[in-house]
Amino acid sequence: MAPDIDMKPTDDVNKDDAESSETKVVPPSPTAEIKTNVALIERAVSTLEPRFTHRVLKTLTGLRKKLDWKVLRDAVEGVYPADSVTKKELLAWIPEVTDEGSTATMDIDPPADTTTPAPKPTTQDPVPEAEVYLRLLIIHRFLASPSTYQKAGELVHEIVDKMQVWNRRSMDPVAAKVWYAVERAYELGDELANARPLFLAAQRTASLRHDDETQASLINRLLRSYLSYNLYSQADKLVSKTTFPTSAGNPQYARYHYYVGRIKAVQLNYSAAHDSLQQAIRRAPLPTTAPGFYQAVHKLSVVVELLMGDIPDRSLFRHPVLEKALSGYFEIVKAVRTGSLSQFQATLATYASQFESDKTYTLISRLRQNVIKTGIRRLSLSYSRISLRDICVKLHLDSEEDAEYIVGKAIRDGVIEGRIVHEKGWMECGGQKGGYGPEVAEVFGRRISYCLELHNQSVKAMRYPLNAHRKELADAEGAREREKELAKEIQEGGDVDEEEPGLGDGF
Amino acid sequence: MSDLGKLYRDLQQSFAARPCDLKKCGTLLAQLKIGLITAGLLVPHGEVNPKDLEIARDILEIGAFWSIRSKDIPSFDRYFSQLQTFYNDYGPVLSKSPREFPIRGLNLIRLLTQNRIADFHTTLESLPLPADSLTSNPFISHPINLERWLMEGSYSKVWNAREEAPAEEYKFFVDSLMGTIRNEIASCEETAYESLPLKDAATLLFFASQSELLAFAKQRGWQVNLTEGTITFSRKGEEKAEIPKEKLIAANLQYARELEQIV
């Protein structure tokens, strides 16, 4: 009974929408958009050109917001011929709009059909890809309201089974999107952990079928699932056991790099984490279109940079998209930069809940030692000799004894140059080195390799039309053929030429 | 099952007894584990009665503590990984075990003493607690503090915290932890000091008697001057100004190769 009751408000909305779509016809109605999309998918399948499908999927986010049951019903009615089995199956999922509503639908239908350029007499079922696409839209509609989450879950299972049976490569791009919907369905139903076996099985199949897009999508789904349950070791194992398909799209790559960066940061492998996060930032969509992802990556990247002992650029915190989101992180950066432990602790306490929800709290609390190191470094630069007592006071350490150990460790770790004179209770700071040792070459080498890596990644990120080289190859092949023929002719001709004088000689 | 029940009660009794009968616990545990396997509870799968699972968990927990008491770390490791299933996968089904956090804390300390810092942090992240309440749990905050002090170099705090262990079993790890920090301190001293009076060196390294210090100094190869009562650390790494030719050549070749690709 519950769904019936819940359905009412949505019905009202539907009617409103129907009215509004009747009054203004100028922008392409969602129904028409879906229809053209289906036509595009058909074209993609018939011409073996995944580009068209990608174009369709690009509009998915925008279209999702405009969906309602009437639109979907109209679309299904319009796309499938009257006596199609698939149509009945699909319609079974779409809840009945009230009787008047459906008659109204019938009334509106014909004019909507004439406006669309799609061929009107549909006698044949469209390709299965189109069906999956329509199902995907239905799922998104289900996911839009909490009352229908369960139905989304059911539909998701059906569609996944169907996709496995069809096993069509031209379906891959749509399938990858479907997996996202699967994840959403499980997550909104609050049972994300239960989706893992399904994802793992599908990931295996996808990798066996060389289904790169689905594989990329699934690896990200799995990583996300692991990380949201803080299962870092499992996530790490997944990363080390799988190879992320190189042909995956940039958004998938960006996500993957972000997850890898997070795992590496937790494992204290900061430079690897930093590299991954840089890649994620570079591959991420524009900050204005996907601000959430952009902010999340930058939050993590700021913390990792601090943990590496670098200070992030000031300009980063003035970026319009980041300014507000990163305010807490900016305070932390200030505290680390000045090497003030008390300020650091105060900031950490103030923004604790924010860091906690960003899942960066534990990472940030690791910064404590960096704060101390920066403090000691500053002292060693400004004093040539300083008593342990003063160090203790300046850095807010608990006792002189601690100070002695901490300074000793800093010297061993190469943070500062100097030594401790125990009898007198002070630290003597050695003069700075000239800065022309082998370490300069090392730093230089690191920078160069960073630039080279950047260049290579950018080249890899460029997109080329599929199979374009084949045409060139064919051309080259043709040219070679012609050349061969020519050579043959020349040779033959030469022979003839030679023969004639030869004959002439003989004569 | 009734047989298992009797063994389980026996185990509980002999484990709770002071002093605990380690040998008897060991044999009981071995029998119980076989029992659990035949009952399909050691690695539970399918639909299992939560009450049975709780008993299985209890047995494994006792096993974990028993391994610590009998100083068998690999065995603790095994028990802990078996317990993971109960804590993580069956966590929502079962009632919370009061021993869960002591055991998780012990595992953290174990990672710390084996110097597996990356694993330590990974485990820490996967704890089912919100990050800012980690410090309010005494069993977890102890290893966290130890790690922090070790990392920043407040060795004296680690030394002092030895007596503040939240559970009896934690003290077992203290000795090996002390060994670790002594080595840490020693390597710091080698670079930070030119020479040290014997007495001060003993306090810095937390040695109670001079003979212990002398043995330690010998092991590290320090020059001890008994008449003046000082230790001199041999300065090494002064003449390291060599140019790493091979590395530079390799790097340059690498650049050339990359540049060729670009052009």
Tell me what you see in this structure.
- Chain B: Residues 74-250 form the PCI domain.
- Chain B: Belongs to the proteasome subunit S14 family.
- Chain B: This is PCI domain-containing protein.
- Chain B: One of its GO terms (biological process) is proteasome-mediated ubiquitin-dependent protein catabolic process.
- Chain B: Keywords: Proteasome.
- Chain A: It comes from Antrodiella citrinella.
- With 507 residues, chain A is mostly helical.
- Among the domains of chain A are: 1-19 and 27-96 and 103-113 and 123-190, no CATH class; 372-431, Winged helix-like DNA-binding domain superfamily/Winged helix DNA-binding domain (Arc Repressor Mutant, subunit A).
- Chain A contains 25 helices and 3 strands.
- Chain A has helices at residues 2-23, 30-47, 50-58, 60-66, 69-79, 85-93, 99-115, 128-143, 149-166, 172-188, 196-208, 212-228, 232-241, 250-266, 270-283, 291-307, 327-338, 341-350, 352-358, 361-365, 368-382, 388-394, 400-412, 438-461, 468-506, and strands at residues 385-387, 418-421, 426-429.
- Chain A has a 3-stranded antiparallel beta sheet.
- In chain A, strand 2 (418-421) and strand 3 (426-429) form a beta hairpin.
- The longest helix of chain A has 39 residues, at 468-506.
- Chain A is globular.
- Mean pLDDT of chain A is 75; it is low at 1-25, 98-121 and 496-507.
- Chain B has 263 residues and is mainly alpha-helical.
- Chain B folds into 2 domains: 2-196, Serine Threonine Protein Phosphatase 5, Tetratricopeptide repeat; 197-263, no CATH class.
- In chain B, strands 1-3-2 form a 3-stranded antiparallel beta sheet.
- The relative contact order of chain B is 0.06.
- The mean pLDDT of chain B is 78.
- At the A-B interface, helix 13, helix 19, helix 20, helix 21 and helix 23 of A face helix 6, helix 7, helix 8, helix 9 and helix 12 of B.
